[in-house]
Each structure stands twice: as C-alpha cells, then as structure tokens.
Amino acid sequence: MIFLDTSAIYALADRADPNHSRAKRLFSKALREGEDLFTHSYDLVEAAALIQFRLGLEPALRFLKESASFVVHWVTPTDHREGVKLLEKRGRRGLSLVDCVSFAVMRRYGVKLYLAFDEDFEREGFEPFG
Questions:
Q1: CATH fold of 2-128, please?
Q2: For the whole model, what pTM was predicted?
C-alpha cells in the first residue's frame, strides 16, 4: 500500500507541473505492481480544491470520480486531534495540518511508502515510492 499525497495528485493532473512526468511514471508503476493507493479525506478535499482553483471544475470533478479507486480513510476527530498535536510539536510554519494527519494515519495503518513531492514525509521517516 502506498500513501498518496496531494502533491502527487496535483502533479498528475497538471501537465505543466514540473513533476508531471515523474508522477505519471510512478502512478503507472504502482498500478502495474498492483499496489493499493491509500489516502484520507482531508487529502481528497485539499487536492480537489487545488485542482479546481488552478485547473477548473471539470478536472476537479474528474479527480473526485477517479478517487473512488483509492483506499480512503475518513478522518475522525481522533485523527484530527493527533494531527494538531503533531503540528504543534513540530512547530514548522511550512508543515500543514493535512500532512500531520497523513503521518498519523500512515503510522496507524503501518504504511511506510508514499507518493509525494514533499520532503516532509521523508523527514518523518517514511520512504518514497519508486
């Protein structure tokens, strides 16, 4: 199972993104290898909003429909509180609540691999896919 972050979702959606080719290659590799793509509801909301703002409503709706193929964890109040605690503990302005919730959820499920273009995952001890 591979955790899927907003940065990778957006890179795949936007052909002009500098990581588009890499995202396309890594998504294809994950699918060929039969890996489940795992994310959570906060990432779905974040990615859909970013795609809609930058690329338009149609690409955002297409993403939301395609996300039905992901394994999605619906964030609970406990997940949210854990994310807030981690954000406070790390104390870095550039680190988001969404990422902190990602780290908490990944640890709960024992997910070690991630697909993202965000150095914070590696800082937290996770391994990049690919």
A1: Rossmann fold (3.40.50)
A2: 0.93
